[in-house]
Amino acid sequence: MRNKTLSANIYRLKYKNSEQAGRRLSQVAKQITFTGRVQGVGFRFTAYHLANRNHLTGQVRNMPDGSVEMIACGRQENIDNCIKELKGAFPGGIAEIKTEAIPQSKKYKEFKITF
Fold it and tell me: How far is it, in rounded angstroms, from Cα 94 to Cα 87?
């Protein structure tokens, strides 16, 4: 009986670890730069709420050149959806979006607005 319990526990441990590994592999990190009329219009506040709704971690901040930089970590489809929703929230306000893959970081535990 002890061997069956031990085997069941090992199986559960392997299954749990493979599930977690699959989730980790599907995570990406992106640096997204928005240009256009994106400062002084509630862009960061909206990005914060949309990122949280899409289960992303990272940050959003104004840049000295007038652009807004967003670091988004999460599933690729969630990042894409967040960008799509931002475009919809600011029609005509976003002139250009540049997206670059960056290394994942455990630094981001939540999504925040930084200054």
Answer: 7
pLDDT in tens, 35-46: 999 999 999 999
Residue 101: inside a domain, yes or no?
A: yes
Report the domain count for the chain. Answer: 1
Owning domain of residue 70:
27-113
> For position 50, which CATH number holds?
3.30.70.100
Residues annotated as catalytic (active site), given as ranges = 44, 62
Could you give the CA distance from residue 88 to residue 104 in angstroms, rounded to a whole number? 27
Is the pTM higher than 0.90? no
Look at residue 26 in the predicted model and tell me its pLDDT.
86
Q: CA-to-CA distance for 57 and 73, rounded, in angstroms?
A: 5
